[in-house]
Design a protein that fits this description.
Layout (H helix, E strand, L loop, with lengths): L1 H4 L3 H4 L3 E6 L10 E6 L7 E11 L1 H8 L8 H8 L12 E9 L11 E5 L10 E5 L4 E3 L6 H5 L2 H13 L7 E5 L4 H12 L3 E6 L4 H7 L3 E4 L12 E6 L6 H6 L1 E9 L4 H13 L3 E3 L7 H12 L7 E5 L4 H10 L5 E5 L20
Parallel strand pairs: 8-9, 8-11, 9-10, 11-12, 12-13, 14-15
Antiparallel strand pairs: 1-2, 3-4, 3-6, 3-15, 4-5, 5-7
Helix pairs in contact: 6-7
Length: about 350
Amino acid sequence: MLSLLTEPVNRRTAKRMKAITYSSYGPPEVLQLGEVKKPVPKDDEVLIRVMAAEATKADCEMRSFSFAVMWFWLPMRVAFGIRKPRQQTLGGYFSGVVDSFGKDVTQFSAGDEVFGSAGLRLGAYGEFVALPASYTITAKPCNMSFAEAAAVPLGGLNALHFMRLAKIQAGEKVLINGAGGSIGTHAVQIARSMGAEITAVDSGHKMSMLRRLGAEHFIDYTKEDFAAAGRKYDVILDMVPGTSYSTCIKALNPNGRYMSGNPRLSVMLRSVFTTRFTNKTARVAFAGESIEELRTLKEMVEGGKIKSIVDRVYPMSAAADAHTCVETEQRLGAVVITIHDGDDDLSIAALDASNLVN
């Protein structure tokens, strides 16, 4: 940390910085490592030296402009650029060190280790990112490396949102479909901390990891339909866009709750009728990613209730490989890109996910 605070002044005031950018939509190879203008924080902003950023499924979807949920396409295209991306530096979830801040910022100091969400501003694939101090940013958990901390906000914020929305009670049976993803792995741990009995659904190679995270039961979706066995659940968190809505609703107990993390438009419409006219509830509310939720996650991490699972760590020059790894879904946990060199926590090519959940 000392080296971060005592680096030469000319480095701090440099007007250019390294960043992973893309100028057209397409495959992972459109990502390029180059130089862009270093941001200058406004009066209400904090400038963060990014140490690590998670390579997320959302990053991949925005890069390729191919979305699992099709109704996203038109509003996202209008917002982010019809012919080419307006914001050419991706990265929504990060960890880093506060470099400087505007005159109206009082809650941060230079050298603070932080993690959080850049929201739709993105930009965490660059060496520095300037964000409003009011954004979802808080102190990094003291018992995590920068790589591990960068892998918390996306999965943790969404998982905490859905588990709270479900109002899980101790002893309830919870099924998580797509449990091996970033949101799913956090949801398994959070639901377990609430006293639930967890059934995880994903591909077979993720079974061992998910059991270590707290899932009592595991269903390999390539071999078995979770609804075919006739088991009933109090809560279903569905992270898989193509799952049959009616199948999920039928698999609920009376007064059961269905949560969809990637809702199709038809699911959003049908959820209204399910909630109003049956004894079951269907919710598709998106996570607000509040600062209170992020601070709660920090406390849960430091209290040993949840961990992030980092499968692989890539340098900036291998961003295309990081995206390929995310898209092929052969990972066991999060994929992280190191943004700044020289941090011992990040000087690795890969992490063994099994070591992070023992």
